[in-house]
Predict the structure.
Amino acid sequence: MTPNAALERLVRQVSAQVRWRRVEHYALRGLFWASLLAVALLALKGAVGPLALPAAGALLVLGVVLGAAWGALQRTSRADAARLADRAFGLEDRVATALEWAERPDRTALVDPLVADATARVEALQSRHIIRRIVPREARFLPVPVVIALALMLAPALPLPSGRLPDFTPGSQEDEKEQRTGSGLLEERSRPEARERLRPPAFEEREFQARSGASTASTGGDLSAVFKDTSLSSQRPDFNSFLKRGDERLKLLEQVDRLPDLASDFTASQYKMVFRKSKALTGGLRPDQISPQKLKELLEEMERLGRKGGNWSGDVGEGMEALEGGQTDKAMEAMQKALDKMRAQEEAQRSGKGLRGGRDNERGGGSRDRRGGGEGGGEGEDFGEGEGLLPGKGKSASPKGEASRRLSATPYDVGVEGESRRGRKEGYDTNMTGRGGPMASRLNYLGVIGQYRKLMEDAITREAVPRDYHSQIKDYFQALDER
Amino acid sequence: MTDDGRVREFVTAFEELRAEVEKVIVGHREIINHVLIGMFAGGHVLLEGVPGLGKTLLVKTLSESLELSFSRVQFTPDLMPADIIGTNIIVEDADGRKHFQFQQGPLFAHVVLADEINRATPKTQSALLEGMQEASVTVGGVSRPLPAPFFVLATQNPIEMEGTYPLPEAQLDRFLLKLRVRYPAIEELNAIIDRTTQSRPISVDRVMSGAKVLAFRELIREVPVAAHVRDLASGIVMATHPQWADAPEVTRRFVRYGASPRGAQALILGAKVRALAEGRYNVSADDLKALVAPALRHRVILNFEGEAEGIDIDTLLGQIVDSVESTTTQAREPFVR
């Protein structure tokens, strides 16, 4: 045996050990991935048929064989094997250095002693396994697919989804199918019957009479009778009884004369149109800044409207004269008076059919005619007319009373006069009657409107207000906003 | 004598020399080993440590153990190059004629102790450069060889830096190894007290001649190094360079300049001496790792961040070695036990 032979033998042994460990390592990896495939195959046992089990077994074997082959084909270099041996046996790189330098042409004088020393040490070694087993990460999870595969082997085939789209064919076609099949079981499972039961009848076909359960007698051999015989099946919606016991407010629907006059769109009234134009003309401007030409056009339009029976023609005439005289402020006052009269007349024409509804005789002062905003009677007359139409005008249940009423009751409040500041105003005139027009109220009109709007929205949400009236109520508040 | 016998002779001589030094020097086994490694590798050694740890005594004892000339130069700021190299002086012969004659300086000795080398000016320090690298000095245009073996052992004090001139990198690179002399343990301190406070003087025998030292230096160079061990040395040296593509993160963060090729040479030569001193005919990876710190610690320059963070260069080199090992050997040997 040459001195190198022992070293070569050691290297071969180490290489063989490495190869075997690699075979184990990759075989386990192959087994794991093959077991996943086997699980998938067994899950499809129903579709694959009796071949699933042997195919799964073959997959496992194939995975192991392929993994082992891959590990066996991995090459371990001689130098690496020598280093592994050096490290494993504590040879301090003697074997690797000796094998490398023994073949070099420029070998030094110390190479021969090195080879001899390494050989002696290697021959004294006890052969043992020096290559550790490395269990692949996948192998720790190997029991999971194995257990699943065993369970799938023992279990019956899993039901598979049919992959069919839901059947949307009409009932008649289904009936034809039933006739063709003629199977009782299929009849029980057939969907058309259920669909027929759920199908909402046409409005003309609805029965509003309560039907007794006896009327739905079951027929022999019809399994659907199980459902027909239940107490629920006998309960049909009885709208009449619902009306009897239901919300009393629904009764209001029967009393047509008590309903508020919401059919007329007062937002498109003459007064509203003229009011919008006047606002557009005067918004934020002093009287001397208003275009006389446009003011004249507006007055002329009001006069034209007044010819149809309005009582504000006199005021419009005064305004026209003042405008011709160059007194724009007086013309504005006259226009305001005419506007007030126009509004009062319009409210009188609606006979106080506000949102509160109710009969005419129940609405206090509802039919009372109003005679001029500025020269009207007492406070009761002021606020009795059109009550409930606008915020601050109705009979409030609030112990503090109405805001406008308190203002008018206090001479100091009423007597607040003066020019409003320039620019956009936060205060709004809530005096809708025209009385005390020059004395612009400083009530926070928007705040009041906001409160009422909130109440309105709550009422719409909580109370049983007919849906058709929702839009009209909202239009009403929209119209208030525009003021 | 067979090669095997030469190796055994070296091992014996190495141990005898170490034993003689250890008669005087207590502890510091590793320092003594590295000093001897530096000497047999044909390099020079820089000893760094606080005063009173026995640096100078170690060198003096080593010189007494060798049948070699010894000179000691105490470096001071006013020391001039001529004071260590020598100079031409006017001498008068028997006929009364005057001529220049070269007066050798203390550098002309086999073993030179440059004590507190960082206290001399750079001009004087650089006078050592030619002698350390070329083993010769040039005076008056004449190059004069230094005696062989020529071995410089320098000491420096890491504290009391005021009034000192830290060695430039170029001169540090001339030292094969830089050794840090640490404080002795309490047992060693007790032994020092016992040994140095007795009336009986300790005698050191001369156990090795200069010729032997040169012969062993030749033997050292015949020690084979496996390719993977050499690759590890190259990898470690390259990993000290932050510009290297595969440099580890610690190098990129804390190192300004890496080790020079002299560092790789020092690693391999020192590892060869270490292997042979242990009776091995080849260099192992452990030899390399044992020499990394003394061979590279003065060749790796920390950057500002490294200095500011107080990075210990030995720790840094250890991390570099681990990083290089993990990317080479370990990665290729996954199945090793």
